Amino acid sequence: FVRNISNFLKRGGLLMLATPNLSGLGARFEKQGWMGFKHDHINLYTYDDLRDVLAKHGFIEVQLGSTLFKGLKICKWRIFSLFLNDIPLFFRPIWPWSKGEAIVGVWRKC
Fold first, then answer.
1. What residues does 17 pair with on adjacent strands?
2. What backbone torsions phi and psi does residue 99 show, to the nearest 5 degrees?
3. Consecutive 10-residue averages of pLDDT for the chain (110 residues)
4. Ranges assigned E (strand) in 44-96
5. For a Cys staple, 85 with which of 19, 32, 68, 72, CB 3.0–4.6 Å?
6. How far apart are the C-alpha atoms of 110 and 107, rounded to whole Å?
7. Whose CA is closest to 16, among 94, 96, 95?
């Protein structure tokens, strides 16, 4: 996937990507019940692994972060979801930390 995107994008092109975060709190606490373990995801990455794979294929990081806590069971209760996930994401969709539910980032092709 990354190789194909790298071949497709011209130099200076932007890649915007969101993927489940294997190093996030949801994956750590929910284990096999985590929502990121779905059959539609061929590869799962940790925050650092995704950085390394993209750098290897000629991408430099423009912005990288993660979403918040949507996958934790406590966040499935509406009141907790509002304060721990929904309201903060309204103000800032990408948080500069590595433990959220999904990795979200923008990279530039060198």
1. 105
2. -110, 10
3. 92 93 85 79 89 95 81 60 63 72 90
4. 59-66
5. 68
6. 9
7. 94
